[in-house]
Amino acid sequence: MNNIILIKNAELYAPQRLGKMDVVIAGGRIAAVGNDFNLAGSNLPVTVIDASDCYLTPGFVDSLVHFIGGGGEGGFATRTPEMQLTDATLGGVTTAVGVLGTDATTRTLTNLLAKAHALDSEGITTYCHTGSYEIPCRTLTGNITDDLILIDKFIGVGEIAISDHRSSQPTTDEIRKVAAAARVGGILAGKSGVVSVHMGAGERILLPIYQAVAGTELKLKQFYPTHMNRNRRVFEAGLEFATKGGVIDFTTSTTDFDLQHGEVAAAAALAEALEFGIKPMQLTLSSDGNASLPIYNDEGELLGLQVGSVQSLYQSARQAITQHKVSLSDAICSITAAPAAILGLKQKGRIATGLDADIVLLRRDDLAIDTVIAKGKLLVQQGEALVKGTFER
Asked: Which of 126, 80, 83, 122 is nearest to 103 (CA)?
């Protein structure tokens, strides 16, 4: 599948709507975007895809996935399973960022990095964050700055937990030092150096971030809080954070219990935030795929546990379009251009000549995923996986 691919007559969303276009893919990159391309006389091996009945969008960017699963809050038997290639590709995800969570003892950075390389070799683009919920951060080299400079796949830190009973209850100074180290490492390595923040349901909400930034040269935009739809209070705090210039992330994996007990569904959160006036590039969705989704009572006692799904990412974006009247461009932006920008992934999240050839074709009639191309290779066609992970059947 290394030949040239010509996609004809697609309605292109880059993610902004550009109208009917052809796209040429060669060498893993987008070689050309325009109209009425004809490569029949080029004497080159060309695969032609008629996309007349499809929308063409960038491949989806999932900014928070637990590649190697998460530590189950119900004991060893509840450790969640690893992600497989088609968990991502059948959901249109062509770029994903792996993280550790509560468990950084039996789930390790070395394991996370190895899994990232495995998924990359199987077909998608992967990155990771160093660290986990806790501060001081677990690292591979001994400090955050060195990890970001010396390890190509590490692009940020996190997800650091705040306002949560599972956090390490970090001090303001500890959060500042993490952000400062990430900033320097990011600058020297040409990476975002973002600090991914796990937002709990505690009373302080985003106060630890505001306190960390106050009186320093740190910027709010270096902090990237996720789970900002955890409940109504957290959601409204997120809107305020965005009005101050920050980027906020809504988690698409959920449980019926959480939705019935105050969580704002990601699709609804995206629609309301846009209606509130937050710019599309400040709003992202992430799946929290393969994470443990614990259900706690008010006393912090575990009632049950489910597993996050990478495929919930596009399911929520699609729901935002079909049920909440979010435009296709804005919904796709939340899972392409917006997360790529905050993560510093300049080759991802958009359709333009010279960028990585990560593309999704959506059927116009029902917005179902038809075709997925990652790094210039066809991985999904007509909704079926052409390529599977090494141990998938």
From this structure: 80
Residues pairing with 198 in the sheet: 161, 226
Q: Which CATH number does 4-57+350-385 carry?
A: 2.30.40.10
* Cα torsion angle, 376, 194, 335, 82, sign: positive
- Quote the CA–CA distance of 270 and 316 in Å, as a whole number: 9
CA gap 102, 302 in Å, rounded? 14
Given 147, 288, 330, 370, the catalytic residue: 288
Residues 155, 147: Cα–Cα separation, whole Å: 9
Tell me, which fold does domain 59-342 have in CATH?
TIM Barrel (3.20.20)
385/249 Cα distance (integer angstroms): 29
Q: How is the chain split into domains, by residue range? A: 4-57+350-385, 59-342
Per-residue pLDDT of the chain (393 residues; tens, 9 = 90+): 458 999 999 999 999 999 999 999 999 999 999 998 888 766 778 999 999 999 999 999 999 999 999 877 778 888 999 999 999 999 999 999 999 999 999 999 999 999 999 999 999 999 999 999 999 999 999 999 999 999 999 999 999 999 999 999 999 999 999 999 999 999 999 999 999 999 999 999 999 999 999 999 999 999 999 999 999 999 999 999 999 999 999 999 999 999 998 999 999 999 999 999 999 999 999 999 999 887 877 777 778 888 999 999 999 999 999 999 999 999 999 999 999 999 999 999 999 999 999 999 999 999 999 999 999 999 999 999 999 999 998
- CA-CA distance, 34 to 22, in Å (whole number)? 5
Catalytic (active site) residue 258: no
Same fold flag, 4-57+350-385 and 59-342: no
